[in-house]
Structure formats: structure tokens, C-alpha cells
Design brief:
64% helix, mainly alpha, 116 residues
């Protein structure tokens, strides 16, 4: 699915690439959050994963948690580069779009665990 035109900066190919990059990474973050049973969209949870706090997991899976941790670091890096390239507001709009799609695809992301 392509990003809405309102999210794409002056260069459509460039803006679409950032949206796809964030979406691919975020989709894998959502998948790993499900594997680890981490309610990743609850306030403060991402920060705890970034600090390597596995106590946010509903199940023990050290390998999946490690991947989740590193993917969140990668997401931060991609987001930072996107903000440098075309501004914080445009980056936030793309991120909101991606998160909205992920909420539809992975409704259990906001917890509680296990999802109903």
C-alpha cells in the first residue's frame, strides 16, 4: 500500500522510500512484539525495550526480544535520518500513517496480553 500523497515530500520516490522503510521495520517490530507479548504501543514500553528491559515481555524469548531491541534502535536511526532529510513534521506524519496501518494489521499491539 502506498503512502497518501499528503505524506510524500516534494520528491515522490524519495518520500515513498522513507515510508516503505519505516513500514517494513515497524511491521517486523509488531511481529516480534507479538512473539514476545510486548504491548509495544502502551506508554513507556518502547523506552523500556530500548533500555533492554525484558521484564515488559509476557513470555520469555531472548532471541526475539534481542531482535526487537535492535529493530527499535534501527527505527530510531531511520526516523532521525528522515527528519534530517525533510523535517520533523513530515516524518511525524509518515510515522502516524505507519502506526495507524499497524494498529489495523496487529490490533493486539496496545495490550493487554494475551490479546482477546
Amino acid at each position: 500500500m502506498n503512502a497518501p500523497e499528503s505524506l510524500i515530500p516534494d520528491d515522490p520516490v524519495y518520500g515513498e522510500r522513507w515510508s516503505v522503510n519505516l513500514e517494513d521495520v515497524d511491521r517486523e517490530i509488531a511481529r516480534l512484539a507479538g512473539v514476545c507479548q510486548v504491548p509495544v504501543l502502551q506508554p513507556g514500553v518502547i523506552d523500556r525495550v530500548l533500555r533492554d528491559d525484558a521484564s515488559v515481555c509476557g513470555t520469555k524469548n531472548a532471541i526475539a526480544f534481542r531482535k526487537l531491541h535492535y529493530l527499535l534502535l534501527l527505527h530510531q536511526s531511520i526516523r532521525g535520518k528522515a527528519a534530517e532529510s525533510f523535517g520533523e513534521a513530515q516524518t511525524a506524519a509518515i510515522e502516524d500513517y505507519v502506526i495507524g496501518r499497524l494498529r489495523k494489521l496487529f490490533p493486539g499491539l496496545e495490550g493487554p496480553w494475551p490479546p482477546a
